[in-house]
Specification:
Elements: H1 2-8, H2 14-26, E1 28-31, H3 37-52, E2 57-58, E3 77-80, H4 88-108, E4 112-122, E5 128-131, E6 141-148, E7 162-168, E8 171-177, E9 184-188, E10 193-196, E11 203-212
Antiparallel strand pairs: 1-9, 2-3, 3-4, 4-11, 5-10, 6-9, 6-11, 7-8, 7-10
Bound molecules: 2-oxoglutaric acid (AKG) and fe (ii) ion (FE2).
């Protein structure tokens, strides 16, 4: 009997509960220090090593089978992360993400079955115009997940704010989010239009999507 209780027992996680509450109430959640300073440091290192190895590509719009590179829409360079070939730090990254997914599936029956993540680097002067994270031929993206890997001391003057757009009874509201290191923003991929304002200093992140079916 005790064993049965142990198996079905479920430990509430206050951080995850807040994320769920936020998303239900306001379609997004902003989490400070989702990744620790050390984790950000190591993930940034991973990103920069791969960027130096010249394996990043110009980001496209559309999905993998339907993509076009359109620099007037977005100017970042990206590298998809393969979980099966993850380095030590990426393994730690996926451990945290997978924990969150498991919790969401257990508590909200979200049915997240797939995920995809890429590193992103926005060179000075680039941006990503207002858009939705869905494609005409793919509506599986449920939640967008962005984690900022900039250096400690990133200044608001560096630009690159993420702006989320909300429709409140026909009136448009904006939420401006600075890409401070360690921050994670999670939002409803199919509901919230958003943009990355022009960056004035190289801006680093990991962006991903939690997907259904
Ligand atoms: O980096 C961000 O803040 C958002 C990136 C984004 O919107 C995207 O890659 O679709
Ligand atoms: Fe986006």
């Amino acid at each position: 009997m005790n064993q049965l209780f142990e198996e079905i027992s479920f430990e509430e996680n206050p951080q995850y509960e807040r994320i769920i509450d936020d998303i239900l109430k306001q379609k997004y959640s902003l989490v400070e220090n989702f990744f620790s300073e050390d984790e950000v440091l190591e993930l940034r290192q991973s990103l920069l090593e791969k960027h130096d190895a010249d394996i990043f590509k110009k980001a496209a719009i559309g999905n993998k089978v339907n993509e076009v590179i359109e620099k007037t829409i977005r100017g970042d360079v990206i590298l998809w992360i393969d979980e099966n070939r993850a380095d030590a730090m990426e393994v730690a990254f996926f451990r945290k993400v997978n924990n969150l997914i498991e919790y969401l599936n257990q508590t909200c029956f979200l049915g997240i079955l797939h995920k995809e993540f890429h590193y992103a680097l926005y060179p000075e002067g680039t941006y990503y115009k207002r858009h939705l994270d869905t494609f005409q031929n793919d509506d599986r993206r449920k939640l967008s997940f962005v984690c900022y890997l900039n250096e400690a001391g990133w200044l608001p003057e560096n630009g690159g704010e993420l702006v989320l757009y909300f429709d409140e009874n026909g009136k448009e509201l904006e939420k401006v989010i600075y890409p401070f290191p360690g921050r994670v923003v999670i939002f409803e991929s199919q509901l919230l239009e958003h943009e990355v304002k022009p960056v004035k200093a190289e801006r680093l992140s990991i962006t991903g999507w939690l997907k259904t079916r």
